[in-house]
Amino acid sequence: MEINGVEIEDTFAEAFGIQVSRLLVTAATKKLAKIAATEATGYGTSVIGCPAEAGIDRYVPPEETPDGRPGYIIMICNMNKGKLDHELLERVGMCILTAATTAVFDALDDEEEKLKTGQKLKFFGDGYEKKLEVAGRTIFSIPLMSGDFLIEGELGIKSGVAGGNIFILAENQAAGLLAAEVAVDAIDNVPGTITPFPGGIVASGSKVGSNKYKFLGASTNEKMCVTLKDEVEDTQIPADVNGVYEIVIDGVDEESVRAATKAAVEAAVKVPGVLKISAGNFGGDLGAYKIALHDLF
Amino acid sequence: MEINGVEIEDTFAEAFGIQVSRLLVTAATKKLAKIAATEATGYGTSVIGCPAEAGIDRYVPPEETPDGRPGYIIMICNMNKGKLDHELLERVGMCILTAATTAVFDALDDEEEKLKTGQKLKFFGDGYEKKLEVAGRTIFSIPLMSGDFLIEGELGIKSGVAGGNIFILAENQAAGLLAAEVAVDAIDNVPGTITPFPGGIVASGSKVGSNKYKFLGASTNEKMCVTLKDEVEDTQIPADVNGVYEIVIDGVDEESVRAATKAAVEAAVKVPGVLKISAGNFGGDLGAYKIALHDLF
Amino acid sequence: MEINGVEIEDTFAEAFGIQVSRLLVTAATKKLAKIAATEATGYGTSVIGCPAEAGIDRYVPPEETPDGRPGYIIMICNMNKGKLDHELLERVGMCILTAATTAVFDALDDEEEKLKTGQKLKFFGDGYEKKLEVAGRTIFSIPLMSGDFLIEGELGIKSGVAGGNIFILAENQAAGLLAAEVAVDAIDNVPGTITPFPGGIVASGSKVGSNKYKFLGASTNEKMCVTLKDEVEDTQIPADVNGVYEIVIDGVDEESVRAATKAAVEAAVKVPGVLKISAGNFGGDLGAYKIALHDLF
Amino acid sequence: MEINGVEIEDTFAEAFGIQVSRLLVTAATKKLAKIAATEATGYGTSVIGCPAEAGIDRYVPPEETPDGRPGYIIMICNMNKGKLDHELLERVGMCILTAATTAVFDALDDEEEKLKTGQKLKFFGDGYEKKLEVAGRTIFSIPLMSGDFLIEGELGIKSGVAGGNIFILAENQAAGLLAAEVAVDAIDNVPGTITPFPGGIVASGSKVGSNKYKFLGASTNEKMCVTLKDEVEDTQIPADVNGVYEIVIDGVDEESVRAATKAAVEAAVKVPGVLKISAGNFGGDLGAYKIALHDLF
Asked: How far is Cα D101 from Cα B170, in angstroms, rounded to an integer?
């Protein structure tokens, strides 16, 4: 299958179940909301080594937020509900409550469960906290040095999907990188999804385990390394490919991850020098979701 | 004592010992280096609840870096060497190695010890990693999908100082916030220091423990809360103060934290509406360092 | 009249007719589109001294543009059609055609006239230009060193409104500045409007002519200068006001300027330290439009 | 000649004399200084169609500026002194004086002449302006709505050099674009130089006149157009080149332009996919300066 002259490999992305939270972080200005959202979602590329997978979903203009201020929706995810509970508490408490002029609201429509993040953080008020209603929501107001921090009492979580992905194979690193940036711009507009890696782009693909070092849980996928294509016998890198980047997508459900994957492919193939689109999987036995690239079109 | 007509309170900031690492993250472009540096230093405001204290120290132009590419120096800190070792491994491995076109070099001149971050991460290469010399440094080259990631074998750590701080008391929130931004701009240029909170600014000060909730380790410092000044009897907020922000400073040594504190005070007092500069301490019994504001001038 | 405890003065903004163009600038990435849009709308605060009034209206995501790439809508305005024709030609030809990967499309729905900007710029192709249809539009493709530049043959213009405005009076400069930023964030989302001054904010208000220097067409409005309030007898600055900023709004029609003015007032009054909202006029004899603040609510 | 395996063509950039001004724009914050500097240097890519060539030279930290605030040095250039005088007056008066919290200082060490920009703009104060000494400079303070605007009375100009350039020929557009960004990052650090085109990058090269349209002063350089390489008989585009970008450099003197050109070449050749570096000239008869690429190394 080809789109815009670029081969779309007949393969699938293997994705996994994950517990997802989705919060709206508002502030006095768009810039201040972005600062808090960025700090709270940092160190959150993959649960392989980070305490969460996290990212910014989208900007929400003032007239669409409960407090009439500009905001960013962020997503914070973990496989484990207990760990997600901890991450919400610390990321909100240490990175948003501490940030200038912020407030936090739940932004999940169809939650399966509620975590009591706000009800726990309110204790920081040491008895001076207050319970309010804002736009029909139960909110706690916690007095701080700089003013009051508002947070919704409960934040929803639900079963979402992590590890949706595409591989962009290009004739050089620059074309792969530009196509990846183009793809991330396209995903930006798909609600309910994030691309948790730095700038949305992954430079390194890994395989499960290691051939040489038995103590490793994951190691470089040598068959997909462009600088090893002449060295590794069963390389999967075509001779004319010299740059490969991956986009990893987490979403609130399979549908949103599929929509983001489709948008990413359609955007990436527009960049001259992109030769092939593929996806990463582990044979299909590990993940609950299989997103076949050809099925998207 | 007054500077520019603003009262500088006769008090001191109480700071603590912390283990500090300082890394240079380079990339093909200034923008790509910033993306990696930001991801790796996120979720890093305070070790009270974050797994590290982390931030960007400064930009380094291409002609001053070992690989001739633009870069940012970042600092990652933890009280505990074992935890710092873990954080370096995961923050570099998950947030910089995975980012497009990056490399990592040690940026500490006077380390007391070396952590083997690069020597451990090299195993990700599954035998395809290579040892190189770059500008007199021992570097490992790890093949990735997108090309090779370079990292120095050992990264230095040393005993540094955390929790240097000033309080900016202003007639309203906006003046406090602008003065805090002005102070962070001034600190930006003091080498060996970071301001780990979101945008460098802290909206919330805390006290040890809680009066009401015995299970809490820290709670809001009600005596410093502007919205409680009429409610709390022994408030420390003057009647005309309606906005208070704190700047927290971590540094490679006491001297750098003192220089940053001085620069922050001199910058903040220039903003009209700033009424007083103070600092936070716990009576002086907890921290190893006492930075008296009056001694700086 | 008060909103959120802030006095809204019973006055009106006096606005003027202006010829408006509205273009969509797309590029490979959001970042590249922003770079081109910024260059093309620079040096465009007021036709008093700039060759045009210009600014960015809004971001348009890839799936809503004719070429499926991210873009920014910009507006370029001048009182005089001939001068607007010149400005379109030079700003598009020198600042967008020269920028990496860009294309230009008309973004005015209800134009009164068409300027032949694309039909003129196509000659730059020196005979190698081509005529295409893209999404039902007549487009010229002009070969450049880096690839082909696409531009719609004709760009619409219409009679719009310039000089809508509010004054934000605050207890200090910082509160005025923060409120102005908050107001600009709110206007960002009103389609068909721009705030052409730097960052959308005006630090200087002027009066027609000069009392002292007869050769001047405009001079500082001393009655509105905060640092002159004790010196100028008939000052309009209340004793407690120490910072005043203006927002100037241009729009495709009076309705959009009114909507932006309303959004700006509602946003600005939320910032503590804002004491009063006013607006600028010249007695009502000069401009065709009077936007009374009280009528907006 | 080859650097890093990339052919450096044995040719020269032909550059021209131009009148250069160099100003320091300071503000309360780094962000506010950047906003003003950007507005004042917009619509300034080339004097072929823009009223000036203009750009940001470099950031200057607070402790190195006359007023102890962060600032950006900008350069504004024109072939003609009278036009430069006009541009300084309007760009400073309309785009910096009007911007929040700014001040303007001369930043040229070896001026040949002084323009009275500040002495003229002071009249805007309508008699309320004041003359001050700041760090040994004669400064005028002009009262505005938001506070006082400070500007040095005289701004230096000198004979500089415009149109220094390199061409980056790459196997695709993305590699050319990435290399151009890398080159601009490298030039950023050469004091006394700007890259006036959008983002520092030129997508379009032109030749003098036109073969087909006799009324044109300049038209596309079809021999350098990648999409015409199969159509134009005497194309200069090698078969494997599919993306060409140009960097244009203006500087305070030939030495600074040469230093920037050298830094640009050394940076660009590091990007995989870059095949050749060349430069633009008109045979050597038009410009006063010939910067031979091979002489730089």
From this structure: 18
Cα of B16 to nearest chain C Cα, Å: 33
According to the model, what pLDDT value does residue D205 have? 87
Average predicted confidence (pLDDT) for chain B: 97
Mean pLDDT of B265-274: 97
Burial of residue B112 (number of CB atoms within 10 Å: 0-12, 13-18, 19+): exposed
Supply the ipTM of this predicted assembly: 0.97
Cα distance between the two ends of chain C: 10
For residue C286, pLDDT over 90 is answered with: no
Q: How far apart are the first and last CA of chain A?
A: 10
Q: Quick one: residue B274, left, alpha or beta (phi over 0 = left, psi -120 to 50 = alpha)?
A: beta
Residue B39 φ then ψ, to 5°: -60, -40
Residues of chain B with C-beta less than 8 angstroms from the C-beta of C171 = 171-172, 273
* Three-class DSSP category at B70: coil
What are the pLDDT digits (tens) for B13-55? 999 999 999 999 999 999 999 999 999 999 999 999 999 999 9
The answer to whether B37 and B110 have CB atoms below 8 angstroms apart is: no
pLDDT at A77: 98
**Under a CB-based contact definition with an 8 Å cutoff, are residues C95 and C109 in contact?**
no
Q: Do D182 and B28 touch (CB under 8 A)?
A: yes
N- to C-terminal Cα separation, chain B: 10
State how far the alpha carbon of D279 is from the alpha carbons of D14, D17, D249, in Å: 8, 18, 12
- Chain D residues touching B271 at Cβ < 8 A: 28
Mean pLDDT of A30-49: 97
Across chain A, the runs of DSSP E, i.e. the strands, are 2-3, 6-8, 12-26, 53-60, 71-78, 103-106, 113-115, 130-134, 137-144, 147-152, 155-170, 193-194, 206-208, 218-220, 243-251, 274-278, 289-292
pLDDT of residue B253: 98
Which 8-state DSSP code applies to residue A35? H
- The token pair that represents D106 in the structure block: 């001369």
Strands (E), B61-146: 71-78, 103-106, 113-115, 130-134, 137-144
pLDDT band at D204 (very low <50, low <70, confident <90, very high): very high
Percent of chain A past pLDDT 70, that is, above it, reads 100
Confidence band, pLDDT 50/70/90 cuts, at residue D135 = confident
How far is C-alpha A80 from the geometric centre of its chain's CA atoms? 16
Rounded to two decimals, the pTM is 0.97
pLDDT of residue A285: 86
Q: In 3D, which of A112, A227, A220, A237 has the Cα closest to residue A167?
A: A237
Report CB contact under 8 Å: D266, B68. Answer: yes
Q: In DSSP terms, which residues pair with B162 in a beta bridge?
A: B16
- Cβ-based neighbour number of residue B67 at 10 Å: 18
Do C111 and C23 contact (CB within 8 A), yes or no?
no
- Show the tokens assigned to B117: 């971050």
Q: Which residues of A touch C62 (CB under 8 A)?
A: 185-186, 189, 263, 267
Q: Where are the alpha helices (DSSP H) in C96-226?
A: 117-121, 173-187
Which candidate, B56, B123, B54, places its Cα nearest to that of B87?
B54
Give Cβ neighbours of residue C31 (< 8 Å, ≥ 6 apart).
Answer: A181
Strands, E assignment, B61-217: 71-78, 103-106, 113-115, 130-134, 137-144, 147-152, 155-170, 193-194, 206-208
| pLDDT tens track for C144-177 | 999 999 999 999 999 999 999 999 999 999 999 9
Q: Does C156 touch chain D (CB under 8 A)?
A: no
Q: Does D177 touch chain A (CB under 8 A)?
A: yes
